[in-house]
Amino acid sequence: MPDRIRLDGRVAVVTGAAGVIGTATVRLLAERGARIVAVDRKPQDLQAAIRDLPASAEALAVTADVSHEEEVAEYVRAAVDRFGTIDVFYNNAGVEGDIRPITEYSLEAFRRVLDVNVVGVFLGMKHVLPVMFKNNKGSIINTASIAGLVGSPHIAVYSASKHAVIGLTKSAAWECTATGVRVNCVCPGLIDSRMLSAIIDGRNPGNAPTPNEKIVERIPARRLGQASEVASIVAFLASDEASYVSGSAYTVDGGRTAA
């Protein structure tokens, strides 16, 4: 019986590949045999993200801003030119934006968050789906957040953007029902990362760092999540083990949204 979690020979495009979750996912997908197209707007960080991949891994790094349609079209074109197709698309790039109340949020900052977190996800699907439709197969995984499931103070714009990602995911899954393409999203909770640190610091400007025990006391698991734990869910959704899964939002939050 074939190993249904393996991704041997499949082509996986990962945006936001230089971030902690993106890097962990690139590594895991490569370990499971996927050929990698790593996308990020920071070329030095992008090269660092693919530097430690298995020696047997085939990887292509593409610098792009996911909020610019011509650059999205280019990373899709580069993937197809190099590997012939796209089997897995981890639509992961995102920003937290400013951490401040709605009344203090500038329109420019609001639009920037939506440009990356919503427009970037939309453009990625817009350009990747036609490639997958040609082969009548593929798996798209969008990065949402538990902030797309519940509200939270001072990150209203980020929360709104992630609610939108979940809506895009569910609608895209319906649009793909007559094809072999599946569309799902992951909703990370409090993951040990730069983004979490930025949100915590933004809520407590000028104050001493919040102790970890205070941060995790409302998480049933009583700890922060790790990027590798999000990557594991992405790899599952990319694999044949998830062949009957589409339109779902998988929480990876230590039980936070169940508390």
Automatic annotation (TrEMBL):
Pfam families: adh_short_C2. It comes from Bradyrhizobium canariense. Belongs to the short-chain dehydrogenases/reductases (SDR) family. InterPro entries: NAD(P)-bd_dom_sf, Sc_DH/Rdtase_CS, SDR_fam. This is NAD(P)-dependent dehydrogenase, short-chain alcohol dehydrogenase family. Keywords: Oxidoreductase. The keyword Oxidoreductase applies. One of its GO terms (molecular function) is oxidoreductase activity. The keyword Oxidoreductase applies.
